[in-house]
């Protein structure tokens, strides 16, 4: 089973390099369902792996001049603040049992995983059904209020669920800001790197870290991201958006089935 988990590390990097997000969508379920970590620890491990691999993957996009740095920092700085707010204030104060009445028991872990899956379903629907808006002509036309508010919201949500946020950032950059898909993927990867690294560092003392495991898993993910970046050069950007949406949809449905239907049956 662990062998499957380590192979999944390569897939995480591949997804990150190919579509600019989705790595944490895979890593959180892997850490929970394959390696047996609790959700809070799994989210911290995910932030480390996704942060390091995204940072490495960003280097390739920097060489290609695909990253919109102005958008990345205006969006990313409020997002980092949102991540820190969630990881330091909201997450530690959630009770272990959120609901325990009417025959329904909703634990903290279940709540975080279900929130994670619902957000994935929403993002996947938007990515599959919506078309790209026209690209912004220049950064001066960008709505700064929209950029900052979206960044803050994404940071709060992704800090809470421990995801890098690509499944929220890419739709925001494409549909709200009008970036083309290639540039949105590259910029998202850079933002994910910032969010994930700061999110991991903010909870470093809150969970036990297995550095040997993290380094092995991270190294395999880095191999995958190099493969993904190379493959992305050969694929039309318009094909990446629905592909991204279907990956998110499948994982979201899997988590809902696992946490609700499977647990009720067994």
From TrEMBL:
Keyword hit for Cell membrane: yes
InterPro entries: TM_pro_TauE-like, TSUP/Inactive_protease-like
Bilayer topology: Multi-pass membrane protein
Keywords attached to this entry: Cell membrane, Membrane, Transmembrane, Transmembrane helix
Keyword NADP on entry: no
Main location: membrane
Record family assignment: Belongs to the 4-toluene sulfonate uptake permease (TSUP) (TC 2.A.102) family.
PANTHER family, per the entry: MEMBRANE TRANSPORTER PROTEIN MJ0441-RELATED (PTHR43701), MEMBRANE TRANSPORTER PROTEIN YJNA-RELATED (PTHR43701:SF2)
Protein name, per record: Probable membrane transporter protein
């Amino acid at each position: 089973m662990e062998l499957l988990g380590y192979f999944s590390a390569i897939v995480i990097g591949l997804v990150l390099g190919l579509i600019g997000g989705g790595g944490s969508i895979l890593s959180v379920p892997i850490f929970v369902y394959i390696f047996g970590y609790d959700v809070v620890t799994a989210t911290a491990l995910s932030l480390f792996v996704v942060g390091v691999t995204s940072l490495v993957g960003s280097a390739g996009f920097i060489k290609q001049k695909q990253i919109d740095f102005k958008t990345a920092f205006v969006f990313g700085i409020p997002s980092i603040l949102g991540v820190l707010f969630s990881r330091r204030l909201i997450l530690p104060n959630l009770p272990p049992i959120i609901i325990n009445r009417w025959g329904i028991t909703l634990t903290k872990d279940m709540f975080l995983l279900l929130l994670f899956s619902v957000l994935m379903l929403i993002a996947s629907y938007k990515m599959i059904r919506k078309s790209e808006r026209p690209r912004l002509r220049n950064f001066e036309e960008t709505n700064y209020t929209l950029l900052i508010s979206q960044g803050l919201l994404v940071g709060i949500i992704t800090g809470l669920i421990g995801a890098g946020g690509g499944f929220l950032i890419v739709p925001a950059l494409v549909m709200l800001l009008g970036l083309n898909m290639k540039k949105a993927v590259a910029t998202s990867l850079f933002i994910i790197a910032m969010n994930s690294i700061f999110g991991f560092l903010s909870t470093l003392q809150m969970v036990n870290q297995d550095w040997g495991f993290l380094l092995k898993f991270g190294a395999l993910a880095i191999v995958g991201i190099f493969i993904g970046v190379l493959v992305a050069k050969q694929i039309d950007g318009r094909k990446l958006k629905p592909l991204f949406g279907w990956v998110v949809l499948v994982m979201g449905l899997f988590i809902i089935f696992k946490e609700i239907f499977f647990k009720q049956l067994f």
